[in-house]
TrEMBL record:
<dbReference type="InterPro" id="IPR001270">
    <property type="entry name" value="ClpA/B"/>
</dbReference>
<comment type="similarity">
    <text>Belongs to the ClpA/ClpB family. Torsin subfamily.</text>
</comment>
<dbReference type="GO" id="GO:0005788">
    <property type="term" value="C:endoplasmic reticulum lumen"/>
</dbReference>
<keyword id="KW-0256">Endoplasmic reticulum</keyword>
<feature type="binding site">
    <location>
        <begin position="103"/>
        <end position="110"/>
    </location>
    <ligand>
        <name>ATP</name>
    </ligand>
</feature>
<keyword id="KW-0547">Nucleotide-binding</keyword>
<dbReference type="GO" id="GO:0071763">
    <property type="term" value="P:nuclear membrane organization"/>
</dbReference>
<dbReference type="InterPro" id="IPR027417">
    <property type="entry name" value="P-loop_NTPase"/>
</dbReference>
<keyword id="KW-0067">ATP-binding</keyword>
<feature type="domain" description="Torsin-1A C-terminal">
    <location>
        <begin position="273"/>
        <end position="330"/>
    </location>
</feature>
<dbReference type="GO" id="GO:0005524">
    <property type="term" value="F:ATP binding"/>
</dbReference>
<dbReference type="GO" id="GO:0005635">
    <property type="term" value="C:nuclear envelope"/>
</dbReference>
<keyword id="KW-0732">Signal</keyword>
<dbReference type="InterPro" id="IPR010448">
    <property type="entry name" value="Torsin"/>
</dbReference>
<dbReference type="GO" id="GO:0019894">
    <property type="term" value="F:kinesin binding"/>
</dbReference>
<dbReference type="Pfam" id="PF21376">
    <property type="entry name" value="TOR1A_C"/>
</dbReference>
<feature type="signal peptide">
    <location>
        <begin position="1"/>
        <end position="22"/>
    </location>
</feature>
Length: 331
């Protein structure tokens, strides 16, 4: 899209340039004027704007993606679909949507954020209304905590002022300085407007490994009892999840009152992935690359991963994370 509109603009200017040489000064002025107006119109036509042409939620698309591209996450999938669909179909939400996604590496937290973005914004993760903050990248130095706090506030305020349907993703919440998130707490709350800006139509997504251990323990217990993983319900995980997130002093959530003030709408657990899910990931990745999915290759990829706990070897240590690069090697 971007490359094409640059090309169109270039073409117009070249055409104008050629015409200019052929006419007298008055005609030239007119032609240049028309060229510039046309150029601007076309530029605006292709430039992403904060309206329904560029931002339109596709509930069917999200359901489809969650059903066919995300594996082993029956709880997360259900909560995400319900939360996002409900929020996006509400013309008058009382607060922004705040999701906190928890789980081990490679279980699909980043991936789900991407699916959400793709089904809301035409440009998906490339949209200028989707913002990703990574603690190690944006907020690396403990000593500059105060600066980061005000910077983050300004960014969010500036971006929501630009477009109220903005989406903010905070990756690696575990590595974020405790307290940083406090600075944006007011934005997540039930305020009509703050300094004339309403945050109620924005989406905030927090990603972290916090609580991952307690999720694994629950899933492992089910597994040991020979029970079906799909029998696990949110309530089996919720209490231990919110406790371990809140009490973990390594987490960016530590002692913030995001949690006790109920500013987080949904805690979404991501379960550790088993061998069969890794196989599904590999098959899906082949399909996405237009290679004929090959069960044999998928099995070889999955067999090559490391599984834990040491004695049972049930869950993939890196989930589906390394599948992409591994496939290059096997196909
Ligand atoms: C919504 O998603 C479905 C399924 O992916 C797709 O077929 C449909 O074209 C999408 N609708 C719009 C308006 O993009
Ligand atoms: C929006 O957020 C980005 C960081 O993702 C920041 O660089 C930019 O300055 C912000 N825009 C405004 C208008 O504040
Ligand atoms: C975090 O908690 C652990 C155990 O609860 C404790 O050993 C450690 O000293 C704490 N770290 C900080 C920075 O408070």
């Amino acid at each position: 899209m971007r490359a094409r509109h640059v090309y169109v603009l270039l073409h117009i200017f070249l055409t104008v340039g050629v015409l200019v040489n052929a006419f007298d000064p008055i005609t030239t002025t007119v032609v240049v004027g028309i060229g510039a107006t046309l150029g601007r119109t076309i530029y605006n036509y292709f430039r992403e704007s904060c309206d329904s042409k560029w931002i339109a939620f596709n509930a069917t698309g999200l359901r489809n993606d969650l059903d066919t591209k995300l594996f082993g996450q029956h709880i997360a999938s259900r909560i995400i679909l319900k939360a996002v669909s409900g929020f996006m179909s509400n013309e008058n939400p009382k607060k922004p949507l705040v999701l906190s996604l928890h789980g081990w590496t490679g279980t699909g937290k980043n991936f789900v954020s991407k699916l959400i973005a793709e089904n809301i914004y035409k440009e998906g993760m490339d949209s200028s209304f989707v913002h990703v903050f990574t603690s190690t990248l944006h907020f690396p130095h403990q000593s500059q905590k105060a600066t980061y706090k005000s910077q983050l506030q300004q960014w969010i305020k500036g971006n929501v002022t630009n477009c109220e349907r903005s989406m903010f993703i905070f990756d690696e919440m575990d590595k974020m300085h405790p307290g940083l998130i406090d600075s944006i707490k007011p934005y997540l709350d039930y305020y009509d407007k703050l300094d004339g800006v309403s945050y109620r139509k924005s989406i905030f997504i927090f990603l972290s490994n916090a609580g991952g251990e307690s999720i694994i323990q629950t899933v492992l217990d089910f597994w040991k009892q020979g029970r079906d993983r799909e029998e696990i319900e949110l309530k089996d995980l919720e209490t231990s999840l919110s406790l371990s997130v809140f009490n973990n002093n390594q987490s960016g959530f530590y002692r913030t009152n995001l949690i006790d003030k109920n500013l987080v709408d949904f805690f979404v657990p991501f379960l550790p992935l088993e061998y069969r899910h890794v196989v599904q990931c590999a098959m899906a990745e082949m399909k996405a690359r237009d290679i004929k999915p090959d069960q044999d290759v998928a099995d070889r990829v999955a067999r090559d991963l490391v599984y834990f706990p040491k004695s049972e070897r049930v869950f993939s240590v890196k989930g589906c994370k390394t599948i992409e690069s591994k496939l290059d090697y096997y196909t």
